[in-house]
Automatic annotation (TrEMBL):
Record-given protein name: Phosphatidylethanolamine-binding protein
Region (Disordered): 105-127
Polar residues composition-biased segments: 105-119
Stored InterPro entries: PEBP, PEBP-like_sf, PEBP_euk, Phosphatidylethanolamine-bd_CS
Domain of life from the UniProt record: Eukaryota
One term of GO molecular function: phospholipid binding
Family membership: Belongs to the phosphatidylethanolamine-binding protein family.
Any Gene Ontology biological process: regulation of Ras protein signal transduction
Cross-referenced PANTHER family: CARBOXYPEPTIDASE Y INHIBITOR, PHOSPHATIDYLETHANOLAMINE-BINDING PROTEIN
Amino acid sequence: MPLVTSDQAIESALRSDGIIPDIIDSIHQTTLLDVSFGDGKDVTLGNTLAVSETQHTPRVTFMSENPSDKYTLIMTDPDAPSRNEPRMREYRHWIVTNLSGSSPTEFAPSNLSQGTELTSYMGPAPPRGTGPHRYVFLLYKQSHGTNVDTLQQSLSSDRPGFRAKQFSSHGQLELVGANYFFAENK
């Protein structure tokens, strides 16, 4: 029986739930991305959380080998207004740049000043009856050429229609971590 690495398991989960190719083309996960809401509501590669549990800014933790590295975190919903009719794909819920790398880095509502918030956090609000939505967290390592002002200027004022692939390519960002959950408004 072949050995399955955590990188392969993560990619398999992302493919199984259509995040590859709907949002990203592929991933070579080098950083574990832990996300949790409130008291113990962890995001675990496709679990389901109640919309009411996800309305406040989550705590995000990741490991970095180099404290001088900078990261960008994105939260996006590719299922707007529904997975069957994603005309507004992707809906941008949150973007934070210039997160410092350390071991571990914890980014929580209490220390939002650590990074530069380009898009303030907006909790999930899927339209009633549109089925489960995928809420995806993407962690990118910034290159030395990443210009946050240029990234800010590339964002429209509208949250719908965001494209993580284009944004990351434009910003010279390298995808290093991903995690996601489902939420539905029945």
